[in-house]
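ligand=2-acetamido-2-deoxy-beta-D-glucopyranose
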Amino acid sequence: MPGLESHLVIRFLLPLFMILGHLSLLGATQLITAAHLTIHRRGGALADREPANLTQLVDLLHDVERRYSRVKREVKGNKLVRSWRARSTGATNDEQLLAEPGKEGRWYTNLPVGPQPNTIEVDLDMLSPDFYTVQTTSGKGSQYNVFSETHVPNDARVHPLCKHPSDTIHLTDLKNTTSVTISLPMCSPSRSSRATLFKSGSVLGLSPSSSSSSSSLSRLDSPPLLQQLLSAELLTDDIFSLTLLDSTSGILSLGGTLARQAEEASTRTQVEMDSIGDPAATTETISGKVNDRLAATFPADIEDQYRWAPIRGAAEGWWTTLLPGLWINGLKMLKNQPVLLDIQSPFILAPPLAARRIYESIGGCSRLAVPYDMFWKFPCLNRPKIMLEFGGWFFPLMSSQGGHDEAVWGPGGGRLSLGKLSMGGNGTSSGYCVGRVVETRMGLQSREDIDWEGSGLRDVWVLGEPAFWGVGVVFDRQRQRVGFRNY
Ligand SMILES: *[C@@H]1O[C@H](CO)[C@@H](O)[C@H](O)[C@H]1NC(C)=O
Ligand SMILES: *[C@@H]1O[C@H](CO)[C@@H](O)[C@H](O)[C@H]1NC(C)=O
Ligand SMILES: *[C@@H]1O[C@H](CO)[C@@H](O)[C@H](O)[C@H]1NC(C)=O
């Protein structure tokens, strides 16, 4: 029962989530095993109980696709890599770089910086390795404090728009908190540019590119955050993982995962339930039993805690792999599909033929009329069981049992739904819901604002936020692979 499992993990991980929000910063420099940071979706969940707003969904889809069109394939050395398209206008004001932080609907973390617990909102970016903060004069967004006593200015340029100061950040592995000085490139638009009206904010690049100097996706000449933490010997493993608690919050773990904490919390609950009415049970005997059970059932090695898939794709630079199988209601509908993992897409984007296969096998579905024809509707009461197959295991995609699950993950219609489709002007529900699996014409139809030439994205899926629900995903740059675990 996947629904029940994800219900449980939310309960188990919620206390950790609360702790993370209220750590006092002791500032002691101690080794940590992994750095855990809470993440949030700006502006809340995409779909709520309101009927789907199709105009808004189309805009959002174009916005998501536009991000993928900014990169093309290129031969570098003897490899095919992804690199930024040359900017067509204004080389001095890299508006894409400055416009990236602070957007609605993006997942971000609160990073504690400076002597006081002064957090900055840092947007996750799985498509680039760059870590930087943007300072504009608009007064909007989340501003980094340059007046703090730990801010060390450095006017050396790592990009025509970015200086190279450093500051102290604070990280915790839930037991120990540690402080470390990192370089935090600070980018500002030139005075007369329209980019001065953009939001202030920060970006945490998490793409699998290696060191910034050799990465064709990097626009700054400074190391990614994870690499800095490894160089400082604060962390030892070049991995990070994402664990969503619901459709608005979760945990980003740098250098490690939450697999053990989740397993321990769930084992503890079982042991406590079993001990109800046992007068001999004490905190110590319960902890002892929890440890015994974990020792017997939970593998010590990350190798065995996850199911792995190697990074594969038409070009290096993003988290792409091959999905061996996609199953619907117990039948394998598609195999060996190229996929890109990106939590910042609120949809599952499927190539046209694949989207059609999926909705035809669900039954009772149809494509919406132009101009909404990238979206499909399905009967809200029809709850297909969609499974992703990785490493010989099955991972439920958006399957829903209704009830609690539905309240946590989305609107009526279950997890597959982006909202109900209303019948017309009078707000009556049609009994149909708009599907989260959206047809993408990436790589096929260029438009005036999107150029797919050389993108290599034809037939590529995007496994966005919904693919992260109820599973733990670990990204291993060192061994160029991605791991999945059911929660
Ligand atoms: C974390 O802190 C505890 C107590 O302060 C210490 O014993 C332990 O060694 C620290 N952990 C690491 C990995 O340094
Ligand atoms: C739907 O979204 C559009 C664009 O975001 C917005 O202008 C419009 O007011 C929304 N309509 C409703 C009924 O909320
Ligand atoms: C709403 O509109 C639909 C079709 O446009 C119609 O069938 C239905 O009766 C209307 N409902 C109300 C309450 O007016």
